[in-house]
Amino acid sequence: MTATIDIGTDSAGASVPIDIEELLATRLLVQGNSGSGKSHLLRRLLEESARLVQQVVIDPEGDFVTLSDAFGHVVIDAGDYNEREIARMGARIREHRASVVLSLESLEIDAQMKCAAAFLNALFDAPRDHWYPALVVVDEAQMFAPAAAGDVSDDARRVSLAAMTNLMCRGRKRGLAGVIATQRLAKLAKNVAAEASNFLMGRTFLDIDMARAADLLGMERRQAEQIRDLERGRFLALGPAICRRPVSVRIGAVQTSTRMGTHKLMPMPAAGAENVQAMLFADMEADAPPPRPEPRPQPVAAEDLMRSIAGPDLSIPSPERDAPQPEQEEVDAAVIAVLQEMIADPASAFQSSAVLYQDFTVRCRMHRLTRVPMDLPAFRRRFAMARAGMFDASDPRWADALRAAGPLPEDMLAPFLLIAHAAMDGRSCPDDDALARAYGTSSQGRVRRLIEYMEKQGVIVARVDFGGRRSIGIPELGLSTAAGE
């Protein structure tokens, strides 16, 4: 499945799409001076992709907390929690695939860097079973991955830079796709910026930033001047997820806004100078109380917030959740249809279990299943059976084959069942290419080592005749495949 969103229009008025699946693999760098429309671009990207992929926003200014009203993002006010609680929330987020906004606006810069580092490290260190695809958006990335030491402590800079480097350099294999935005490319660590393959470059005026932007876009230095002339809300785009040649994009409209809105000129007050002076100096007694601080929302307990991340309480009635469910026969038929669609997609052979499971949940909703019929461990087993052509899990013929696969690791279940299915039907032994696809590899050597391992475990017995044809027997079943090339 592919999923594209509309980010805006080019100079001719044509829509400019972004391929979210490609973006997950190739990451994105956004650059623009203050007032260039950088935050508007990020908001457009987040709003358009909110229904397609999990989102995690590192928000140093609290600009994106309004996403919670329209799209259900969980807002975490970092000032209300300690480092251990922030790390626990990061782990829970990956487990439950919750979209969140980590608001850092109540913290000083040192604390912002340490908090963001703890949060990103928790996302990065999640167990392999929780490596679901997620967009990780970091606004003002030059704060968290500075190119040089500044006014912050060395400890804060070191841990924050290490976390950002992990996100951009090693996050892809863990399903984390970094989307970083910065005002100054020259202030952003080069090893962080260099890992992005997609770019959206907005207006900037400093020569050093224009030169770096032109280099990333593959433009000549003399062409860099056009970056200075870009109007607010227009960016130069390039990358495999957007387009193969630089194109000028005007970012489209958004549904939400910052809490303060956009600042515009207002009429000055009409009061005279004497009235203004009287108001300014009224009640200036020495014991006058200090001004009251702006009221803040009551902090949410960490356990309550983690429960909200985990999802709604199933004990509480919900009209949508409590709606009549399809009959079990309809659910089983829909699951078989979904598995057949996924197996027919050639790309499914080389995708991780987490990515396949997300694809499975989306396809189930398209088949009008209001609940996902199985969790991730059950899906892995069922998908391995589907790869072997065993789509109906209730068929009693597969029980003996599943029992015979008991000594094998989970990732070897699909190729073993493919062999078992061929033996049960009296067909020839699957060739190396078929076993490689079932094993999720393209290496013939790994297939040979796979067969050797299964034979050492006593699960199969492989024979090769003088003609070079292979047959594989399964002692537990008392069956053998026919000889095959």
Automatic annotation (TrEMBL):
<feature type="region of interest" description="Disordered">
    <location>
        <begin position="310"/>
        <end position="329"/>
    </location>
</feature>
<protein>
    <submittedName>
        <fullName>ATP-binding protein</fullName>
    </submittedName>
</protein>
<dbReference type="InterPro" id="IPR014588">
    <property type="entry name" value="ATPase_Atu1862_pred"/>
</dbReference>
<dbReference type="InterPro" id="IPR027417">
    <property type="entry name" value="P-loop_NTPase"/>
</dbReference>
<dbReference type="InterPro" id="IPR002789">
    <property type="entry name" value="HerA_central"/>
</dbReference>
<dbReference type="GO" id="GO:0005524">
    <property type="term" value="F:ATP binding"/>
</dbReference>
<dbReference type="Pfam" id="PF01935">
    <property type="entry name" value="DUF87"/>
</dbReference>
<dbReference type="InterPro" id="IPR003593">
    <property type="entry name" value="AAA+_ATPase"/>
</dbReference>
<keyword id="KW-0547">Nucleotide-binding</keyword>
<feature type="domain" description="AAA+ ATPase">
    <location>
        <begin position="24"/>
        <end position="214"/>
    </location>
</feature>
<dbReference type="InterPro" id="IPR008571">
    <property type="entry name" value="HerA-like"/>
</dbReference>
<keyword id="KW-0067">ATP-binding</keyword>
